[in-house]
Amino acid sequence: EPEVTQTPSHQVTQMGQEVILRCVPISNHLYFYWYRQILGQKVEFLVSFYNNEISEKSEIFDDQFSVERPDGSNFTLKIRSTKLEDSAMYFCASRTESGNTIYFGEGSWLTVV
Amino acid sequence: AQSVTQPDIHITVSEGASLELRCNYSYGATPYLFWYVQSPGQGLQLLLKYFSGDTLVQGIKGFEAEFKRSQSSFNLRKPSVHWSDAAEYFCAGGRGGGGNKLTFGTGTQLKVEL
What we know:
heterodimer
């Protein structure tokens, strides 16, 4: 069964460093998402992406964050200058253009020290 | 504002017992509703979904959920719990179309006693 894949599974970075989290959405999907889950808290929406542009973003998704689809298969989340409070599990997700079911990846656990 | 509420933070059941996890939603119109399960250190696996039609939906692993408009609820049930069901369960809602972002509940941690 096709699935959303994410790399790395776990990354430790120093505060102030740039981080790029990578995702390969399901191949025929056209909507892409990033969500995050701070330890012990609920899963929160960050951003949705469609047709090579952001379709919606939350207030969490400030200027420190950016997303990109650099080629036909990858979808990335960049955090420009990480803060301690960016430590969280980041989930990539995708869905088809007409469907309403969103499929999640296994997550990338980011630890900022 | 749209919201999804899971009133129970922790639930403990004995293996073989029945299970019901509660979920309430607050949306202007009937949302699309989902239940996801997250095992420790794992991602979010879709258990089942409700879009429209039959209000009792079947999912994977023997789970089912019932949409009740009058109660704004979408409770998850399983007639007989297995030890491997111990995990965190998230209810989520979306409006469909467009970006269709999901709003998640805070999750219910299920512990299964042998």
